[in-house]
Amino acid sequence: MTLSQLILSQLSDPFRIVLIIGLVYTMLRTRPVTGTLIPLLSGVAFVAIIIPVTLNQGSAEPVWRSISAGVLSNAVILGVVMGVWSLYDRARR
């Protein structure tokens, strides 16, 4: 699988998308205590590591390649989710 195919498959993974949406929801609820940047960065890294380590047994892809593509995919998904949230929050006010 090429790197672009790997990234596209991760961008369309519903499990990954739901985890990132949950990450943003949790960050918004705990923002006064924990801030914004550290929870988002650690969450993106956690999701990028936990999915390939637990779900890719027997895969031909090296784990480090899946993790590095996952970080990129998660960052893109996070940007989209934060953009949608920002638009919703602006329209709500």
Features of the shown structure:
93 residues, mainly alpha
Which consecutive residue ranges, at least 5 long each, have pLDDT under 50? none
Indicate the overall shape.
elongated
Over all CA atoms, what is the radius of gyration?
14 Å
Distance between the termini: 45 Å
Overall number of strands: 0
Residues in helix, %: over 70%
> What string gives the helices and strands in order?
HHHH
* Overall pLDDT metric: 92
The major sheet is characterized as: none
Strand content: under 5%
- Continuous helix count: 4
What is the SS-derived class? mainly alpha
Structure description:
The chain contains four helices and no strands. It is mainly α. 85% of the residues lie in helices and 0% in strands.
Structure at a glance:
The chain contains 4 helices and no strands.
Describe the SSE topology:
Elements: H1 3-11, H2 14-34, H3 37-55, H4 63-92
Helix pairs in contact: 1-4, 2-3, 2-4, 3-4
